[in-house]
Amino acid sequence: MHSFTTERLFIRPLIKEDETFFCQQLTNEKVMRYTGGTLDIDEASKIFQRSLRANERAKNGGKKSVLTWAILCLNTETIIGTQTLSFLVLPHNAEIIQQAEVKRIKQAEIGIMLSPNANGKLFPEEAMGALMEYAFDQLEYGRISAFFDNRNLATKRFVNKLGFTATTKLDETSKNQITNNTSYHYFDHQYWQKKLITKVFPRLIKENAVTAD
């Protein structure tokens, strides 16, 4: 797990100082309207602590569950969002993961959550694209999967812009496990041609910005 930069962004593992921003996101109705609704502050704080522990476990060589990065704007040096790679088996992705395992495809599910004031600046494409590149080149994953609510037109737009393949070829089990509003897209490593990451940092490069090999 590393930090890395793009032209406009510094993307680093989540740290304890991010808790206020993290909880503000999960309790913001506008941010959470397509992800199951807002949480109260106590539940948001618990999720933040679990995210920190999951990062630390992965850093120490333990099992990966969810890896979480903070997204910072290089120009303002402020946090504008978070993004994740998830390896959990959940109701919405169980059949997809099983199919990938049968085909021996190493895959992860990607997610991103930006602050409303960061919208309209093409940050999602830059941040999510860089994390995809990191997953392909550094973690050697073969496929990135994305599940999102069809009503989230902004996500649909930038996922398509990044070149994800949309599919409706889900078996009956998957159809029963995900809602009618859920869309599944994927991107395979061999089709990735972008170079968005300008530098990868394997060690401490800022105060509290700790990364792990």
Rg, Cα atoms, Å: 16 Å
Low-confidence stretches: 171-178, 204-213
Order of helices and strands: EEHHHEEHEHEHEHEE
**Structural class by helix and strand composition:** alpha+beta
The mean pLDDT is: 88
* Lateral arrangement of strands in the main beta sheet: 7-8-6-5-4-3-2-1-9
Number of helices: 7
Q: In CATH, what is the class?
A: Alpha Beta
Find the CATH superfamily. Gcn5-related N-acetyltransferase (GNAT)
User: Which bin fits the share of residues in helices?
Assistant: 25-40%
Number of strands: 9
Shape: globular
> How many independent structural domains?
1
CATH topology: Aminopeptidase
Q: Give a quick account of the main beta sheet: strands, pairing sense, barrel closure.
A: 9 strands, mixed
Q: What distance separates the N and C termini?
A: 6 Å
Tell me what portion of residues adopts beta-strand conformation.
Answer: 15-25%
**What's the architecture, going by CATH?**
3-Layer(aba) Sandwich
Structure description:
There is one protein chain. The chain has 7 helices and 9 strands. It has 213 residues and is α+β, with helices and mostly antiparallel strands. The chain has one domain: Aminopeptidase (3-Layer(aba) Sandwich), CATH 3.40.630.30. The chain has a 9-stranded mixed sheet, with helices on both faces. Strand 3 (66-73) and strand 4 (78-86) form a beta hairpin. Mean pLDDT is 88; it is low at 171-178 and 204-213.
